[in-house]
């Protein structure tokens, strides 16, 4: 058996010296937006079921979703949907072996934030 001195080796990457990269942060954001969309999806299902059942049920959930808080929630969900979609598209591009170098990956990470915001604003204007 090899003589390995495990007691004196530093942990890697150590949390005190690790600096998050843009690509790792954008990847974490893709996961967070996926969870956020999973949390908002029951509201959409509730809205559709209420529309199919009764006018009073629909008025309740529709009133909530058309309030300032509902508008803010749906705005965030729209941005999350665009960001998550662009993140998945970025991973498809990576799966094909393109844009894997660090500078291009960082530009794609910044582009995802910008494009998600622009697409969200376009969604608001069009609808």
Quick structural summary:
It is built from 4 helices and no strands.
How is the topology of this model organized?
Layout: H1 22-53, H2 55-65, H3 68-95, H4 102-126
Fold-level CATH name: 3 helical TM bundles of succinate and fumarate reductases
Using the 3D structure, state the CATH architecture: Up-down Bundle
- The CATH first-level class comes to Mainly Alpha
What's the alpha carbon Rg, rounded to whole Å? 21 Å
SSE pattern: HHHH
Continuous helix count: 4
CATH level 4 superfamily: Fumarate reductase/succinate dehydrogenase, transmembrane subunit
Portion of residues in helices? over 70%
Percent strand: under 5%
Which structural class is indicated by helix and strand composition?
Answer: mainly alpha
| Major sheet size, sense and barrel closure | none
Shape: elongated
Tally of domains: 1
Number of DSSP strands?
A: 0
What is the first-to-last residue Cα distance? 68 Å
